[in-house]
Amino acid sequence: MAQQMICVEDFEKYAHTHLTPSVRDYYNAGAGAEFSLRLNTEAFKKYRIRPRFLRNVSRRDLTTTILGEKITMPLAVAPAAMQRMAHPEGECANARAAQEAGTIYTLSTISTSSIEEVAEAAPKGIKWFQLYIYNDRNVTLNLVKRAERSGFKALVLTVDAPLFGDRRADIRNKFSLPKHLRLGNFDGELSSKINSAESGSGLSEYVQNLFDASLSWEDIKWLKSITKLPLVLKGILTPQDAILAIEHGAAAIIVSNHGARQVDGIPATIETLSEIVEAVNNRIEVYMDGGVRQGIDVFKALALGAKMVFVGRPMLWGLSYGGEKGARQVLEIFRKEIDLAFALTGCASVHDVRKDMVQHESYYSR
Ligand code: FNR
Q1: Whole-structure pTM over 0.90, yes or no?
Q2: Is 258 one of the annotated active-site residues of the chain?
Q3: How far apart are CA 255 and CA 289, in angstroms?
Q4: What is the per-residue pLDDT across 266-281, written as a single tens digit (0 to 9) for each?
């Protein structure tokens, strides 16, 4: 009998046994001793939902508007590198799944499908492009122009990765991109350097050699000067940086700790969300990612002030299970679970999800 896939955890278990150890570890790993990786999911459990009843939830609408575009639910696909390691169609399959589900797909700079391939695979979907900035600024300029030409709707600048974190499994495995795959957006050494590891993680060496670790707020001005696309800053973890993001003209921020892959010992993103939302005070849109695995997690993030959440690893697990179909299944599970969470808490739309519908566990032990 075909395996029953009821929840995201089922896809995680499938991926755990079906991906090669090196790819599995690269997808799943967190930084350091992985304290924050565990915290990202555990911290959701510290928030308790306080449902309201008798509020007519016979019709429910999960849609929301993100940077002026309507999407069918408050959940989108996070940028994740090198998706063809999960399935031969990689990013193209994932982008098609997002298009079919009516939500946003974010393509990583270090993808195994090019900007143009993804645009062609999912021409009607809302697509955002995630940027890493290379030492050679012409590389970035070129990526931005290609994303614009291919109809991408926003640029997501990842601010938390001057270097990559200490991912111990990748060092042990000497992780590098398998030889039959390449970085879709580049030719020559910008692509081939990722296919080999000299002393440890090939990916880490790639980032150290090619990414611009001198990036500062000044560069946000430069980035804004070369494009008309809205700029989303991904990786904001403090109210101070959220305010700087507003001051530098960001259209939105993603409260994210990069799936706990950069600095170990940082808070779970759900823990930092409230104070950032408060500091932003509705001036720009605030999204979050990190550890979202169930509809109730999405509910909690919305209640604590996020306009939308992103999911990273769940989509890679879905891809590994069944390409586009598997990725779509994951999105539909989320949709079903979000809808049920809304129905059972008295919410007919995203506007009904209020801050007082979630309480931290400390409230109940007073
Ligand atoms: C990522 N993430 C990421 N972020 C980014 O800005 N550019 C990238 O290329 C990648 N690549 C990447 C690869 C893999 C394998 C993972 C797991 C993550 C981070 C990603 O966008 C997102 O912040 C986290 O994945 C969210 O956490 P969850 O949903 O995986 O718990």
Answers
A1: yes
A2: yes
A3: 7
A4: 999 999 999 999 999 9
259 lines ligand 1 (CB under 6 A): yes
Closest Cα to atom 8, ligand 1: which residue? 80
> pLDDT tens across 17-33, in order?
999 999 999 999 999 99
Rounded Cα–Cα distance for residues 286 and 357 (Å): 19
How far is 63 from 43, CA to CA, in rounded Å?
A: 26
ipTM metric: 1.00
For ligand 1, whether the C-beta of 183 sits within 6 Å is no
Strands 308-311 and 75-77, how do they pair?
parallel
d(CA 11, CA 315): 9
In sequence order, the 6+-apart residues with CB closer than 8 A to the CB of 344 are 51
Render the burial of 334-354: b for 16+ CB within 10 Å, e for the rest: bbebbbebbeebbbbebebbe
Task: Return d(Cα 17, Cα 130) in angstroms, integer.
Answer: 29
- How does strand 69-71 pair with strand 64-66? antiparallel
Ligand 1 atom closest to 257 (CA): 23
Distance 258 CA to ligand 1 centre (A): 5
**Rounded distance from Cα 78 to ligand 1 centre (Å):** 6
Three-state DSSP state, 75: strand
Ligand 1 pocket mutation pick from 34, 131, 313, 320 by most atoms within 8 angstroms of CB: 313
Q: Is the minimum distance from the CB of 292 to ligand 1 under 6 angstroms? A: yes
* Cα 27 to ligand 1 centre (Å): 8
Report the separation in Å between the CA atom of 313 and the middle of ligand 1, taken as the mean of its atom positions.
7
Ligand 1 site, residue 312, Cβ cutoff 6 A? yes
The per-residue DSSP string of 140-181 comes to HHHHHHHHHHTT--EEEEE-S-SS----HHHHHTT----TT-
Contacts of residue 95, defined as CB under 8 A and 6 or more positions apart, other chains included, come to: 77, 105, 107, 118, 121, 122, 125, 127
Phi, psi of 302 (to 5 degrees): -65, -45
Phi then psi dihedrals of residue 296, to 5 deg: -65, -25
pLDDT tens, 230-276?
A: 999 999 999 999 999 999 999 999 999 999 999 999 999 999 999 99
